[in-house]
Specification:
184 residues; TIM Barrel; 8 helices; alpha/beta; 8 strands
Amino acid sequence: MIIYVTNRKLCRGDLLVRLEMLAKRKPHAIMLREKDLPVPEFEALAAAVMEICELSGVDLIVNRDIETASKMGILKIHLSMDDLRRNRDRLAGFSQVGASVHSAEEAAEAEALGASYLVAGHIYSTDCKKGVPPRGLKFLREVCSSVAIPVFAIGGMTAHRMGDVLSAGAAGACIMSEAMTCEI
């Protein structure tokens, strides 16, 4: 399973056109992750991406913005561990809650706090985390074996690395850079 993660700053061409093309590939979901947008702009983008996802039958996950997701009726949210800890009492209306984890201990804690899936990383070297060593497949195996919920690998993910992360126990991968820059 693949979750495409947005990054308009990396995107070649128009983001919405790219997302339409990516949605036609029928990923597991598209995660809207534009952390630096002011709320009105984020809400406008979320509305456009929600329409693309609905037309293609693809799930939309909002990264971090609980208020926008709730206001727009988007039922899937993804949070950092800090945000999951802080906001666990505000998540009852969501059908799926994901959490980013960086250790097997965080993975177990996120599951105990009600996360329905995890994103573990970063697995491979990536320009998004320049200078930070990747955690690797051993780390991914540890996270996957520490929980009973699906784990998605992130960080330096490409289509040709899917076999390795699936063999490590992951349910799939989150792909950002390749999704935002590939030929479509």
